[in-house]
Amino acid sequence: PLREAVGALEQFGWLVVTSANAVRAVLEIAPASTWPAALRVAAVGRATARLLEEAGVAVHFLPTQGLAESL
Fold first, then answer.
1. Would you state the pLDDT for residue 61?
2. 56/65 Cα distance (integer angstroms)
3. Between helices 46-54 and 20-29, what is the axis angle to 10°?
4. Helix (H) or strand (E) holding 47
5. Where are the beta strands (DSSP E) in the chain?
6. What is the pLDDT of residue 69?
7. For residue range 8-65, what is the model confidence (pLDDT) as tens digits?
8. Which residues are CB-neighbours of 58 under 8 A, at least 6 positions away?
9. Alpha carbon of 22 to those of 17, 69: distances in Å?
10. What residues contact 60, with CB distance under 8 A and at least 6 apart?
């Protein structure tokens, strides 16, 4: 399911990434340079956001609390 979803990123408006492990898993399937330009990204937690930014991904939303419930 993850491989299919990442392969269809152009069909989504948002990608919500909830952990550093999720960042690594998604980037392993599709490098950030292949992501659609219009895709907006939400990160849960500063460590998750940092890894995304290090990979060249702009983080459009970072909740004030690093919990999925904050989304």
1. 96
2. 23
3. 30
4. helix 46-54
5. 14-17, 40-43
6. 60
7. 999 999 999 999 999 999 999 999 999 999 999 999 999 999 999 999 999 999 998 7
8. 41
9. 6, 17
10. 40, 41, 42
Q: Which two tokens stand for residue 56?
A: 């060249």
Both tokens of 24, joined, read: 């690594």
Alpha-helical regions (H) of 1-71: 2-7, 20-29, 46-54
Residue 18 has a pLDDT of 93
User: What does DSSP assign to residue 32?
Assistant: G
- Decide if 25 contacts 8 (C-beta within 8 A): no
Closest CA to 14 of 57, 64, 69, 65: 57
Cβ proximity of 52 and 43 under 8 Å: yes
Cα(53)–Cα(33) distance, rounded to whole angstroms? 12
